[in-house]
Each structure stands twice: as C-alpha cells, then as structure tokens.
Amino acid sequence: MLKILKPGFFTTVQDCGRFGYRDKGVPVSGVMDSYAGAKVNALLENEESAAVLEITMTGPTLEFQADTFIALGGAEMTATLNNTPVSNYKVIKVKKGDVLSYGKLESGFRAYLGIKNGFTTSLLLGSRSFFFPVTERNSIKSLESLPYSPVKEFAPKISEMKVDADLDNASLKVYRGPEFEELTDRQLGELFSKEFSVAKENNRMAYQLNETIEGSNLSMLTSATLPGTVQLTPSGKLIILMKDGQTTGGYPRILQLADKSIDILAQKRSGDSIRFTL
Amino acid sequence: MKNYNISFRQFGLHTILVEWPKKVEEDVLLDILKFVRHLKKNHLYVPEWEFIPAYNSLTLVCRNKVLNFTELIPQLREWYNNKIEEDITDRHLWRLPVCYDEEFGIDLVDTAHKLKLSVNDLIALHASSVYTVFGIGFLPGFMYLGGVPEALEVPRKATPRAKVPKGAVAIAGKQTGIYPQESPGGWNIIGSCSVPMFNAEKEDPCFVKVGDKIQFYPISKGEYKLHLIENEVGIYKMEKIKLDA
C-alpha cells in the first residue's frame, strides 16, 4: 500500500482512459499528459494501461509500505526520497518505510508517479481513472492507502531516459474543427495571430483562455465533443476541453488539438501563453 | 426508408463526424441508429470503435489509430447507401416515477405561475407527454429529451443555481431532463425522480440509450422514499415497455 501522508493540491489515480461509455455521457479521463504517463510506464516495463499517480501543482507526501520500483515524470516538482533529491525519468528502488515528498514546482504543472505493475485501485467501467461519479472521489485524500503489489527484484533494461518533454513549448498544433468553416475572416485572423493565456479556470475538464475573439451566434444541435476540442462561446470565450471534459456540447467546435498538443497544454498553468498553429 | 443527404467530416485524427439534415426529428434519429447498427455488425467493431449519436449527428471514434480519411469517407458513404434496411427492435419506453411535491419541486409554483397553469395542470402535462432521448451527455447519464409540449416551454432561470440536487427533474425551453448527480444548473426544478440515472457499479451504467422514450408518472412522498430504499437494496423494478414490438 502507498499511504497518503499529505494529498497535495489535486492528486488522482489515472490510467490510459475509460473507453466505450461516451454514448452514456462518461468522459474518457486518463492521464492529461499521456506522453509523460507513457514514459514512466515504459521505464518500469509496465503495461500501457498501468495506473499512475497524477500530481497537480503541489505534490503529496507519500509513504511506501512495501518494496517496489518507481519512476517519476512530467512536471519538475523537486521530489525527494527520504530527503534526498530524485530526478525524473529514472527507475528508483524504494523500500518499505521510504517517504517520497515534493517541493517547489520548477516547470510544468502535472507530475507523474509510476509504480512497478501499476496501482491496483478498483477497476470501474474498464478503467482505474478517478472521475466522480464513476469513482467515489475526484482526488486522493489524506491517510487513505492506494494498493500496489510489492516487487523485490526488477532489473530494468533502461534505467534512465532523456525525455524531450517540451514543457516550454507555447505553440499548439491544431486541426480544423467541425464548425471551422463558419468562422469569419476576423475570427480567423484573431485566432491565429493572437497570443492567448491560460485562465485561472483550468482543470481536468477544461482550460479556459483569458483573451476573447469575436463571439459566435451559430445555433447548433448538441453533438459530440472530444478531449482537445476548442469551443467558441457567444461571448467570444475559448474553452478547450480536456480529458474529463463533457462528451457532448452545444458550442461551435472550431478547432481540434493534436494529441501531442493536449499533452503540452496539460503542463500549462494560469497565465501561461499559448498560440494556435494550423 | 429513404436515404438522407449526409455529410462526413474529419474531426481530429481519430474521429469522423457524420451529419444528417439539421432537424430534431425522430426519423432522422432512427436512420442514425440504423446506420450505427449496420456499422457495428458489419464494418466497425466495438471496442476499437465508439459510436456517439446525438440529435442529427453520429460521431465515430477509433481508439488510438490514425485514420485514413480519404479512404474511409467514401467507404462510409458506400456503406450508408447500401445498408440493409432492418427495423430497430431494441428500443424501450421507460416509465420513470417523479415526486412533484413542493419539497423537491422548488420552482413548481413559480413555474406554474409563469406558464399561467395550475400546479396540477403543469404536472398532468409533464407526466402525460412521451419524450424521446435524442442524446446522452453533459453529465454521465444526462438525457437530452425532445417532445416537451408547447404549453410547458418556459425560459431558464435568470441566475443558475450553484447546486441542483441529484435526481432533480427540470424544464427549460424545449427541454426537460433529470440531473443524474448534483451539479450547477439553470433549469426550473419541478420534482425529483426516485430512480438513479447513473450507476457505475452496473455493467451498463445508464439503462437508457439514445432512441429510447421516457414517460414520467407522479408518485407520493411515501412511494418516493420506498423507491429510494428499494434501489439501495437492489429490489426496485423498472417499468419498461418494449417499443417496436
């Protein structure tokens, strides 16, 4: 078990997502930065679907109650194991009683903790990803324990990896969304020339942007949305849906982020700049 | 049945959006459901593919794979034009119990007043209509229902509530629905449904599917409380009628 001594700002268990229930309104969920999530699992030679911890902004304090191997990735959050600094993208052996804690957020916004063979919290609708009301809670709480299977021996093929995390990249690659053709020349001009910044309303469901463009009064029938769909509201606000985003919407879907750009955006926080590139 | 003039659109690298004429019509919805069934049976298999129907659209999502749209779109058009016409036979009418007591229907009196109806007439109208499920989304298990009688069309509340309770039955504009979980919301709350619309413990977490129909029937507070207990211990029996029989 992994004992949560302090939960941090917003820490969740995530895997690669919950598929097959979007027609019942259940979002996909899963790691926000799938690139970082996949890398820590790859280092540990885990299945792609192994569940990891997603740690947002401020890290938790965690006590391992059995031996295992871990790998950290994503945001740089000044992690220490028993007060000794540990770095990202490296296989680390941990012993019963070891304490992992996090300090200052240096870069990025979401850090990942992978564990050998993954966390074994309950599998609901085919996924361990936290999402209320599928899972009981939205995030971990103090003094709860997350299950994993102890591992004594593991000789990793690669013990350390250099990762091109792209955390400072401000450019998001986008495709035309279903309602792209409805955009006016002025809207198009604003969309691709302006620099936007992430609003304080940003979470696993959606990222809003501070700057607006000319609004859209296009009347639409509700239709499916995806993680990475950029919606334009009548007041000109841009809303980028993320992994826990609603599965349908009624605002024009003007752009669709490339998968890699969802990973990049997942590492942005309030005030960070972004640009759209078609 | 005739074939509609439908369009296909790339939506990111893994998804195709298919659109029918922009109408809220049962015939359009049925044609979408027939296409879904044809595709699932013959061409695009679950779980690799997901099918999300809503009003006049069908969204086809392929897990992981990057799609070749120049090949797939003409292929889909051909599959649509040559699909074998079989009637949809798995739709149900669900009869859902609603307690229209003022304890739950906190906007009931106010809404009746706005509509120039008596509370009893409002309840009778809401409960006598048969609604079609045109989509499920916004929240897990939230149904977009069509078929609200004109006499019940009322604007949404000027200021949305921060917390609408789970189970709240509400109306706004041409829509009515049930909040499957506590959430913010701006619709007028007229009652509470005693049957949970979403349960992640079940293999199918939401018993209703797009294309089904809903009818509400009034229950007393006593029956409401009994249903809650019956649901908790798992002995509540849903009232459903097979359509297309």
Count of discrete alpha- or pi-helical segments spanning 4 or more residues of chain A: 3
Largest interface: A-B, 34 and 43 residues
Largest sheet of chain A: 7 strands, mixed, barrel
Using DSSP, what is the number of strands of chain A? 20
* Computed structural class of chain B: alpha+beta
Taken together, the total number of domains of chain B comes to 2
Order of helices and strands of chain A: EEHEEEEEEEEEEHEEEEEEEHE
Work out the radius of gyration of chain B: 20 Å
CATH topology of the largest domain in chain B: Cyclophilin
In short:
The complex is a heterodimer of chains A (278) and B (245). By secondary structure, chain A is mostly beta strands.
Describe what this molecule looks like in 3D:
The complex is a heterodimer of chains A (278) and B (245). Chain A is 10% helix and 32% strand. The mean pLDDT of chain A is 96. In chain A, the strands form four sheets. In chain A, strands 12-19-16-17-14-13-20 form a seven-stranded mixed beta barrel. Chain A has two domains: 2-146, no CATH class; 171-277, Cyclophilin-like (Cyclophilin). With 278 residues, chain A is mainly beta. The longest helix of chain A has 10 residues, at 34-43. Chain A has helices spanning 34-43, 185-193, 259-266; strands at 2-6, 10-14, 52-56, 61-64, 68-76, 80-81, 84-85, 92-94, 99-101, 107-115, 145-146, 171-176, 196-202, 206-209, 223-224, 229-232, 238-241, 248-249, 253-257, 273-277. Chain A contains three helices and 20 strands. Chain A is elongated and about 60 Å long. Chain B folds into two domains: 7-81, Gyrase A, domain 2, CATH 3.30.1360; 92-242, Beta Barrel (Cyclophilin). In chain B, β3 (49-54) and β4 form a beta hairpin. By secondary structure, chain B is an alpha+beta fold. The longest helix of chain B has 17 residues, at 26-42. In chain B, strands 5, 6, 7, 9, 10, 12, 13 and 14 form an eight-stranded mixed β-sheet that branches. Chain B has a four-stranded antiparallel β-sheet with strand order 1-2-4-3, covered by helices on one side. A two-stranded antiparallel sheet of chain B has the order 8-11. Chain B is built from five helices and 14 strands. Helix content of chain B is 25%, strand content 29%. Chain A binds chain B through residues 19-27, 124-125, 132-135, 175-178, 221-224, 226, 228, 246-249, 253, 256-259, and chain B through 9-13, 15, 17, 19, 22, 24, 46-47, 50-57, 59, 61, 63, 134-142, 144, 180-181, 198, 200-201, 204-206, 209-210.
